[in-house]
Fold this protein.
Amino acid sequence: MESNNNITLYGSTSPNVQKCQLLLKELNIPFNFKQVDLWKGEQKTEEYKKMFPNAKVPGLVDTNLDIQLFESSNILLYLVDKYDGQGKYLPKQDKDYKARLEVLNWLFWESSTLGPMSSHHNYYNVFGIEKVQEASIRFNINQN
Ligand SMILES: N[C@@H](CCC(=O)N[C@@H](CS)C(=O)NCC(=O)O)C(=O)O
């Protein structure tokens, strides 16, 4: 049996990291957490990018398999593939294919639409110094 405490999650307080922390905890997988200081640009160092070339958090290292994963949805898929034997969080293809596809609908929608649009919305409509009208319209969260 492989030991699981070889898993390290690199992250900050961001929702993309929290998704991974939640699933690790739900699946009772022991893991180490390494804080990455985004304000200091720790995600942009050569050492970090060697592991996670997208230069963002979260990133996950599993030394059991000698793998480095980036993109939160890929991390979630890896965790359910390997540790959710019953298919509680992602139904197995041969058990309930329709339910599996429904979960994947929402997983891809979240990572390709909700996440990025919310991020742009926050930048242009909440935190951004300069108000750009075109961007405010484009990234209004109420739009599709
Ligand atoms: N699509 C990526 C988005 C990751 C992302 O945008 N992470 C942000 C924190 S929420 C980050 O690392 N920002 C720092 C930067 O862009 O330099 C995922 O789902 O993992």
User: Anything to note?
Assistant: The chain has a mean pLDDT of 92. The beta strands are 7-11, 32-35, 59-62, 67-70. The chain is about 45% helix and 10% strand. The chain has two domains: 7-83, 97-138.
